[in-house]
User: Which sequence fits this backbone?
C-alpha cells in the first residue's frame, strides 16, 4: 500500500470542513446575491486572518506581506492595514504588479487613504513573510516572475505564513510544479482538498481554519474523535451471539492464506457475533489454528452456498487474498443482485463493473490507490492527486460507498458527501493492513449498518498505529498488531 509521509497538523479543535474551489465561489455568489459584497467578505477575511495570525506575531518583527493581483492579494492588503493599525511593523509588497481585481483595488485605495505605503520589491531580511500571492484562483504554470519571488522566499529564514493556500498549490488538485512552502496556512472558511492530497499537502505546514462569517455547507469534512464518540453504538444488555449478527467472509487462497486470518481476526475483534469463513480447505486448515472462534465452509465444494451456517448472514465481505476470475465475478453479481445485506468488496473482488441501482442495502468498496487506478483506468499518481474528487465521483455514479485507502483515507457516499480521515502513520504502510480493515468493516456491518461505521472503522484502524508508535517504532508494526492493539484502544477511548 502506498502511504505518504507527512503529517497534517490542525491548529485548534474545531471541525475542518473541506471545500472545493467551486463550492467557495458558490458561497461567495450566494452571499453577494443577498447583499453581502465581496468587499465586505474581504474585510471579514482580513479581520479573521489578523485575529488568527497575531497570536504568532509580535510587534518588533519586520513583517513582509506579499500580495498578488487577485483577491488573495486583496486579503493581504486588508491584513496589512490591520497590522499597521495595531502597531505592527508590516510592509505591503506587490512583487508581481499591482492588483487587477476590482475589489482588491478598492481595498488598496482605502489602505492609501489611511496614509499607508506599499512597495513592489522585497528587500533585506524579514522576520515574517506572509504569502498573499495566489489563492483558489491559481492555475499552473508557475511563471518565471513567480520563480524569482519563490527564490527569495526559500532563501529567507523568516517564519512563513500562507493566506488560504500556499501559492503554487491548486485548491482541488494535488499536483505541484513549484510552490511556497509554508510553516502555517490560514484557510478561509474551510480547508481546500489539496491540503489532504499529495504532494500539495506537504506545502501547507500547520493548518488553521478561520471563520469569515459564511454558513458551513461543505460536502466533505475531516472525521474526528468527537464524531466517533457521537456515532458509536450504545452498549447492549442481555446479549448473546445472535445479537451481533453473523458475518460471512469470502477470503484467502493457497498463495494468500494470511489475508483470511487478518480479515477474520478484524471481524471477530470488531464484535461480530458469529463469523463464517468461506475459503479453500487447505486455507481453512491453517486458519483454524489462529482463529478457532470462526466456523468454516469449503469454497471448493460446489454446494457451499447451501450450507445452513450461512442462511442468516447480516453482512458479507469478499476479496482479501483472492484473485479476480469469472467464478468470483459471478458470485459477486449474485450477492449484489439477490442479497439484502451490506456487501463489502476488497482486493480481488474489485473490478470495473456496474452496480445495481436502487439496491436496498449498501455496497462498500475498499480500494487502495492501485486498485482504484485499476477500476477507473487512471494511473496511481492520478488517483492520489485527485483522490477526494475521484472517490466522490465514483461513489455517486456507481451508487456505492468508496473507502479509498492510503494517507488521508477518503470515505465517499453515493449522495456526494463524505469524510477524510487523518489518523494513522507509516506503521500502516505494510501488507495486510487493508485486509484487517475489511474485516473490521465486516464486523461492524454485521451488527447493524450505519454510514458512520465506515468512517469509524478507518479512524480507529489509524489510531491503532498511533497508539503503537507511542512505545514502538512505527516501521516495526505488523498488520496483525492492529487487532492486538484494538481492544486496548477501545478501552482507552471508553468505547464498548
Ligand atoms: N469565500 C472566501 O473564502 C473568500 C476568499 N477570498 C480570497 O480570494 C481568493 C480567491 O481570489 P481570486 O479568485 O481572485 O484568485 P487568486 O487571488 O488566487 O488570483 C487569481 C488571479 O491570478 C491569476 N493567475 C492564476 N494563475 C496564474 C498563473 N499561473 N500565473 C499568473 N497569474 C495567474 C488569475 O488570472 C487571476 O487574475 C481566495 O483564495 C481568498 O484568499 C476573499 O477575499 C473573499 C471571500
Ligand atoms: K497564498
Assistant:
Amino acid at each position: 500500500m502506498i502511504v505518504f509521509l507527512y503529517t497534517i497538523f490542525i491548529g485548534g479543535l474545531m471541525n475542518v470542513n473541506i471545500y472545493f474551489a467551486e463550492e467557495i465561489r458558490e458561497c461567495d455568489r450566494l452571499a453577494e446575491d443577498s447583499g453581502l459584497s465581496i468587499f465586505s467578505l474581504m474585510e471579514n477575511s482580513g479581520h479573521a486572518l489578523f485575529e488568527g495570525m497575531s497570536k504568532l506575531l509580535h510587534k518588533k518583527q519586520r513583517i513582509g506581506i506579499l500580495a498578488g493581483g487577485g483577491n488573495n492579494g486583496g486579503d493581504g492588503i486588508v491584513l496589512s492595514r490591520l497590522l499597521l493599525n495595531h502597531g505592527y511593523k508590516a510592509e505591503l509588497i506587490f512583487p508581481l504588479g499591482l492588483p487587477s481585481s476590482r475589489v482588491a483595488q478598492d481595498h488598496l485605495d482605502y489602505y492609501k487613504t489611511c496614509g499607508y505605503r506599499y512597495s513592489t520589491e522585497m528587500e533585506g531580511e524579514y522576520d515574517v513573510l506572509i504569502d498573499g500571492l495566489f489563492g483558489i484562483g491559481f492555475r499552473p504554470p508557475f511563471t518565471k516572475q513567480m520563480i524569482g519571488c519563490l527564490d527569495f522566499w526559500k532563501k529567507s529564514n523568516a517564519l512563513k505564513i500562507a493566506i488560504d493556500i500556499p501559492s503554487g498549490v491548486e485548491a482541488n488538485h494535488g499536483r505541484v510544479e513549484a510552490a511556497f512552502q509554508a510553516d502555517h496556512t490560514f484557510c478561509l472558511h474551510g480547508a481546500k482538498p489539496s491540503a489532504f492530497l499529495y504532494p500539495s499537502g506537504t506545502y501547507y505546514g500547520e493548518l488553521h481554519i478561520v471563520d469569515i462569517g459564511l454558513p458551513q455547507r461543505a460536502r466533505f469534512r475531516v472525521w474526528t474523535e468527537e464524531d466517533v464518540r457521537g456515532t458509536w453504538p450504545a452498549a447492549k444488555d442481555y446479549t448473546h451471539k445472535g445479537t451481533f449478527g453473523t458475518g460471512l467472509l469470502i477470503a484467502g487462497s493457497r498463495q494468500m492464506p494470511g489475508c483470511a486470518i487478518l480479515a477474520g481476526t478484524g471481524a471477530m475483534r470488531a464484535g461480530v457475533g458469529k463469523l463464517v469463513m468461506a475459503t479453500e480447505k487447505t486455507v481453512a486448515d491453517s486458519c483454524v489454528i489462529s482463529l478457532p472462534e470462526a466456523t468454516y465452509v469449503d469454497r471448493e465444494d460446489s454446494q457451499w452456498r447451501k450450507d445452513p451456517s450461512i442462511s442468516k448472514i447480516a453482512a458479507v465481505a469478499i476479496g482479501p487474498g483472492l484473485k479476480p476470475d469469472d467464478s468470483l465475478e459471478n458470485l459477486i453479481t449474485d450477492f449484489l443482485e439477490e442479497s439484502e445485506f451490506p456487501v463489502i468488496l476488497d482486493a480481488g473482488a474489485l473490478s470495473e463493473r456496474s452496480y445495481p441501482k436502487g439496491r436496498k442495502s449498501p455496497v462498500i468498496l475498499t480500494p487502495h490507490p492501485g486498485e482504484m487506478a485499476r477500476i477507473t483506468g487512471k494511473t496511481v499518481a492520478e488517483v492520489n492527486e485527485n483522490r477526494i474528487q475521484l472517490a466522490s465521483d465514483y461513489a455517486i455514479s456507481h451508487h456505492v460507498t468508496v473507502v479509498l485507502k492510503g494517507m488521508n483515507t477518503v470515505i465517499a457516499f453515493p449522495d456526494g458527501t463524505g469524510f477524510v480521515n487523518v489518523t494513522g502513520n507509516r506503521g500502516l504502510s505494510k501488507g495486510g493492513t487493508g485486509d484487517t480493515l475489511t474485516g473490521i468493516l465486516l464486523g461492524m456491518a454485521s451488527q447493524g449498518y450505519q454510514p458512520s461505521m465506515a468512517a469509524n472503522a478507518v479512524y480507529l484502524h489509524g489510531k491503532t498505529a498511533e497508539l503503537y508508535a507511542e512505545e514502538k517504532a512505527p516501521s516495526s508494526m505488523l498488520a496483525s498488531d492492529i487487532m492486538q492493539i484494538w481492544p486496548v484502544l477501545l478501552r482507552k477511548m471508553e468505547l464498548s
Remarks:
- The chain has two domains: 9-218, 225-235+312-492.
- The two ends are 30 Å apart (CA to CA).
- The CA atoms of residues 29 and 35 lie 10 Å apart.
- Residues 1-5 have pLDDT under 50 and may be disordered.
